[in-house]
């Protein structure tokens, strides 16, 4: 062990040393269907207009610290209720980290259903918080009895509810979400990363509950490279969170690009509509592939499916060998045994995935 390794082992917190960093697969030349990105870029004419806008950004100056102009556009585009406060982050991951630091650090508890977004656990541990889970119900729905029992047992400072849920894709019953919020004393975070693909949103109701905030992101609607996350809630929460937000956390180029994109929202909406249409086609075709044992309804831009026990790794590797990269969920949670997740791509990408999947399952 080197001297640097020895010192790191001595001083880095044990709970951090016990973690594994979030792994992102290198796609190489593969069709990339593993990260829930929107597969359609902007039309070429918009790209030129966007680049022209960026030429006017004064990158030798710090960005607008409060992103005031962008916040105004987001309020209109997302239908944020009047009176709600907004705070922006470098992706919604930064906002989750901020929430944990401000509310749950120092040994308090973070609660989430399982299976759900892997970063809830990782970021709770990084903040020095305890982490607890309660099981999702049938078809991965929100089990309010299990949630209430967990709230009673753990008294969490923060409870995360992903609607729709990642990695299962299903939307949550909003009355069940409201019931959990009513039962919780701490903060309840409704994570709506996939709001654009969902049938309903909790955002219009956020001010009805004094302990609820709603998270959103622009990453899933075609702007993943910008890393723009949004938190909406009562101003009392936003005021406190602002004390922990790093200054200038959203760069000038990201702000200018997001402003431009929202001025041309029709292009984003068109891409989302195309993804939703392809999702329905893929959802109809996927169960017909021999060897696919189960699929789940999705209100996201991905589909989760199950293959025979013990075959998920081989299927994943078979797809990679045939030039398609998806996400292997098998091994991440007992209820996801045999499961894989595929992002909805362009029609030709989805066709290539279906063909590669059939070949991998037949091998």
UniProtKB/TrEMBL annotation:
Domain Aminotransferase class I/classII large as annotated: residue spans: 49-357
Entry's EC annotation: 2.6.1.9
First-level EC class: transferase
UniProtKB keywords: Amino-acid biosynthesis, Aminotransferase, Histidine biosynthesis, Pyridoxal phosphate, Transferase
Reactions mediated catalytically: L-histidinol phosphate + 2-oxoglutarate = 3-(imidazol-4-yl)-2-oxopropyl phosphate + L-glutamate
Functional pathway: Amino-acid biosynthesis; L-histidine biosynthesis; L-histidine from 5-phospho-alpha-D-ribose 1-diphosphate: step 7/9
UniProt keyword Amino-acid biosynthesis present: yes
N6-(pyridoxal phosphate)lysine: modified positions: 220
Cofactor(s) recorded in Swiss-Prot or TrEMBL: pyridoxal 5'-phosphate
Domain of life: Bacteria
CDD domains registered for this protein in UniProt: AAT_like
PANTHER family associated with the record: HISTIDINOL-PHOSPHATE AMINOTRANSFERASE, HISTIDINOL-PHOSPHATE AMINOTRANSFERASE-RELATED
Similarity comment: Belongs to the class-II pyridoxal-phosphate-dependent aminotransferase family. Histidinol-phosphate aminotransferase subfamily.
NCBIfam families per record: hisC
Subunit structure: Homodimer.
Name of the protein in its database record: Histidinol-phosphate aminotransferase
Species: Halorhodospira neutriphila
């Amino acid at each position: 062990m080197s001297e640097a390794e020895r010192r790191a082992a001595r001083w880095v917190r044990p709970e951090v040393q016990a973690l594994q960093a979030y792994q992102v697969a290198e796609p190489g030349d593969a069709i990339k269907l593993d990260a829930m990105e929107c597969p359609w870029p902007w039309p070429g004419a918009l790209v030129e207009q966007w680049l022209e806008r960026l030429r006017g950004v004064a990158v030798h100056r710090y960005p607008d610290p409060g992103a005031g102009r962008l916040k105004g556009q987001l309020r209109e585009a997302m239908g944020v209720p009047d009176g709600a406060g907004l705070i922006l982050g470098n992706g919604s991951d930064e906002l989750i980290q901020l929430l944990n630091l401000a509310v749950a650090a120092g040994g308090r508890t973070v609660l989430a259903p399982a299976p759900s977004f892997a970063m809830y656990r990782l970021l709770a541990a990084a903040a020095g918080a305890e982490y607890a889970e309660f099981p999702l119900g049938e078809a991965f729905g929100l089990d309010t009895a299990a949630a209430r029992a967990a709230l009673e047992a753990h008294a969490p400072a923060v409870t995360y509810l992903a609607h729709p849920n990642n990695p299962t894709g299903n939307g949550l019953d909003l009355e069940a979400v409201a019931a959990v919020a009513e039962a919780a004393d701490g903060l309840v975070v409704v994570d709506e990363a996939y709001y654009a693909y969902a049938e309903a949103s909790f955002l219009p109701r956020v001010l009805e509950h004094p302990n609820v905030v709603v998270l959103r992101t622009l990453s899933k609607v075609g702007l993943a490279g910008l890393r723009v996350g949004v938190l909406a809630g009562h101003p009392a929460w936003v005021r406190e969170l602002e004390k922990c937000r790093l200054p200038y956390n959203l760069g000038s180029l990201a702000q200018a690009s997001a402003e431009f994109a929202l001025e041309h929202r029709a292009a984003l909406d068109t891409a989302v509509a195309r993804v939703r249409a392809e999702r329905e086609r893929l959802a109809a075709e996927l169960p017909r592939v021999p060897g696919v044992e189960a699929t789940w309804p999705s209100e996201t831009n991905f589909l989760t499916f199950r293959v025979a026990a013990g075959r998920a790794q081989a299927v994943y590797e078979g797809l990679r060998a045939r030039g398609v990269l998806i996400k292997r969920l098998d091994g991440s949670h007992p209820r996801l045994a045999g499961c894989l997740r595929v992002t909805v791509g362009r029609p030709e990408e989805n066709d290539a995935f279906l063909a590669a999947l059939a070949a991998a399952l037949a091998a």
